[in-house]
Amino acid sequence: MTDGEKSIHGIWNVPVAVRKPMEEALHIPVVMDNGIRCSALLEQMTSDEDNFIFIKYMQPGIGATFLKDGEIYRGESYFSMEIGHTIIDPEGDYCPLCRRRGCLESVISIDRMTKEITEQFSPEWCPELYGLCEGSAENISLELILKAADNGSIAINRLLKRNARYFAIAVINAHTLIDIHKIMIVGTLFSSVRFSEYFKTFIYEYQLTPIYDMIQILPLKNMELSPAALCVHSFLEHI
Ligand SMILES: [Zn+2]
């Protein structure tokens, strides 16, 4: 994770200014940001909205940002709106990234769910998925997991409900803190009508005033365009 000047965690232990050598080598201005913010800028360009919370729930994790008057707030440490690393289960394991107990990402990420399903994969635990995968854990995919849920898997529906519940809590909390009345969400699990309905139900369950009307579930977009949105945003503002 880097802002182009310093690596935050994961790669280097000391600040490394990666943008400057790139600019010197390429002889063009270079801008860097994380995937969430780039995707939010792409959404701004294509939706014409300047004020919204943007939340992404897909591999590899869960991230968020928000735009106010067309500008992204990044925070003093570049960690603004890291809802994926807010604590959702104080009894959960420590997350190797944020070192907090039971952060949202460590509990409900797609990778975490797939790992749990793979570890328990058996005809007894989930006959629906076992059949779809022809008895081989190597065939497990998100598509088949969601299909097994639709085919009546009790175990997988439990996991989807848990994920929808914690995600709904995180979305409500994010809105409570930021107070912007439009929430755009993009996520692979929302391709499942079943998961989407679980999520909607938990939003209604946990917030009695109308908040679901502020939420817009977005279709999955071509993420390769996101860096282009960062370039347009960064360079047009200087014209
Ligand atoms: Zn974490």
CATH class bucket: Alpha Beta
Report the biggest beta sheet as strand number plus sense, adding barrel if it closes. Answer: 5 strands, mixed
Order of strands in the sheet with most strands:
3-2-1-4-5
β-sheet strand percentage: 5-15%
Based on CA atoms alone, the radius of gyration comes out at 19 Å
Cα-to-Cα separation, first versus last residue: 29 Å
Helices and strands, in order, run as HHEEEHHHHHEHEH
Low-confidence stretches: none
Based on DSSP secondary structure assignment, what is the total number of beta strands? Answer: 5
CATH superfamily: ATPase, nucleotide binding domain
Which SSEs are present, and which pair or pack?
Elements: H1 19-26, H2 35-47, E1 52-58, E2 61-68, E3 71-72, H3 104-108, H4 110-120, H5 127-132, H6 142-150, H7 154-178, E4 183-187, H8 193-206, E5 215-218, H9 226-236
Parallel strand pairs: 1-4, 4-5
Antiparallel strand pairs: 1-2, 2-3
Helix pairs in contact: 2-9, 6-7, 7-8
The structure holds zinc ion (ZN).
Written description of the protein model:
- This protein has a five-stranded mixed sheet with strand order 3-2-1-4-5, sandwiched between helices.
- The model has no long low-confidence stretch (mean pLDDT 91).
- It has helices at residues 19-26, 35-47, 104-108, 110-120, 127-132, 142-150, 154-178, 193-206, 226-236; strands at 52-58, 61-68, 71-72, 183-187, 215-218.
- It has one domain: Nucleotidyltransferase, domain 5, CATH 3.30.420.40.
- The chain contains nine helices and five strands.
- It binds zinc ion.
- The site of zinc ion has 8 residues, from helix 3.
